[in-house]
Amino acid sequence: MEPVVQYKEVQKSFGDTHVLKGINLDIMPSEKIAIIGPSGSGKTTIIRLLMTLAEPTGGDILVDGKNLWKMEVNGKTKTANEKHLGAVRDDIGMVFQHFNLFPHKTILENCTLPLTSVQKMDKTEAEALAKQMLDRVGLGDKFEAYPANLSGGQKQRVAMARALVMKPKIMLFDEVTSALDPELVGEVLEVIRDLAAHEDMAMVLVTHEMEFALEIADRVLFLDEGVIAESGPADDVINKSENPRLQEFLKRFRSNGQS
Amino acid sequence: MDSALNILSYLSQGLWTTVSIFLAATFFSFVMAFFAGLCRVVKNPLVRGVTTAYVEIFRGTSLIVQLFWLYYAVPMLFGINLGSNWWVGVIAIALNYGAYMSEVVRSSVLSVDEGQTEAAIALNLSRVQRMRHVILPQALRLMLPEFGNYMIQILKGTALVSLIGLTDILYYGDIYRSTNLDEGPLAYLMVLIMYFIIALPLIWLSKKGEKISKKGVAG
Which residue has the higher pLDDT, B210 or A33? Predict the structure, then answer.
């Protein structure tokens, strides 16, 4: 089977700060990957490059074999333009730490916007699909509500429904529970658990929820100082690795009582 | 009291000129504001540079000088006839206030949270769709109070067109005073009152705009 996403020697610097120092990673279709690591290790940057929210400073990212950030023009390789990016990123969806719902639109409108504007679906069809997704995340009674009237957990579930309507091949989750009150984390994880169990799409979760990563991820990556320091089945990485940096990271985590 | 009413009815001959110039200038100010404001947030450096030059030049020089330029200098130098005096007045005011208001558009667009753009990119909306469906509707609410203020200023700015021979309220005020010298103070008092009355709905509008804006973008 061909990987759906390939990172090849991907680098990213912000000025003099080298956040990613050569990432090599194959993501297989329907694979569930969790990325863990200390803050500042570049976890979020990895998925932001794939979502085209930031441009890599080196290397290539291939989506279904197509180079995401580069395109051929008359035999020459150029930086991708908006049109090229638009064609490739149709397959990618993302859920953000701070939800980023559109506050001026109802929950339903949040979910129909990409369908009517990007996919040119007609309104009735779009609403039917959006309602189906909102039902699925347990918000079937909130169609007309505005984001401001929802709890953090509800907002994050809407954000997931909104990403799901586009039927992405890869879904990215950027610390989606970090901004939530502890008692609201469960309902969001529940939805992700359901998606992981029933959806074919690949999922990449940047997360601090170790137990959860252990539970749903096929593979865990430990990112440290801009490189993938450990990679393997969740149990191997979290419970059996002898990498001292990883040990230290996990220890600090457990002593914080977060795991 | 009689003469006050007398003056008011005399001044009202200029009412339509003032109001029509105000309405047209406001309309074109908004057009310029959105056009220039949005040009200043595009990627293309040439477009950005040209618009920045326009904005800074028109903000940095006085409206009255711009008015004289359009009225006296432009036709002589370039042989461009801008049509009637009425159009010269409208164009000068619209270019001037359009420049100021484009800054409101630009800063409001930029103050919408970056996460909104990122979410829209993640949903694969095009640049234009992002602006139209996500950024502008939110930025508009931030613009409202400032727009109200500028509309009041545009109304006051229209008084300058009497200097290029347009027969607005102030023009009739001047004429009245010069033929009834002893009533000068009363004549100008009536001019003030008339402008203020026209401004009242604008003041109300800008208060309303402020309220909508304060309510934020939700709902």
Answer: A33
Structural domain range at position B116: 2-214
Q: What percent of chain A has pLDDT over 70?
A: 98
Pair of tokens at residue A39: 């803050």
Residue B15 lies in a domain: yes
The SS3 call for residue A145 is coil
pLDDT tens for B76-120 read: 888 777 778 899 999 999 999 999 999 999 999 999 999 999 999
d(CA B170, CA B191): 7
Note whether residue B219 is domain-resident.
no
Predicted confidence (pLDDT) per residue in A165-218, tens digit: 999 999 999 999 999 998 999 999 999 999 999 999 999 999 988 888 888 999
Q: Which of B111, B121, B123, B130 to mutate to test the interface with A (most CBs of A within 10 A)?
A: B123
Among A178, A130, A126, A171, smallest CA distance to A156 is for A178
Q: Give kind and range of the element (H or E) at residue B131.
A: none
Please tell me if residue B219 touches chain A, with a CB cutoff of 8 Å: yes
Chain A within 8 Å of B127 (Cβ-Cβ)?
Answer: yes
C-alpha span between B29 and B27 (Å, rounded)? 5
Strand partners, A72: A77
What is the ipTM score, two decimals?
0.92
Q: For chain B, how many structural domains are there in total?
A: 1
Question: What residue spans define the domains of chain A?
Answer: 5-91+169-255, 103-167
Going across the sheet that includes A66-67, the strands are A17-27, A5-14, A58-63, A66-67
Of the candidates B181, B119, B111, B180, the residue with the CA atom closest to the CA atom of residue B146: B111
* The CATH number, out of the four listed (3.50.50.60, 3.90.550.10, 3.30.70.100, 3.40.50.300), of the domain defined by the range A5-91+169-255: 3.40.50.300
- The CATH number that applies at residue B39 is 1.10.3720.10
B124 to A101: CB separation less than 8 angstroms, yes or no: no
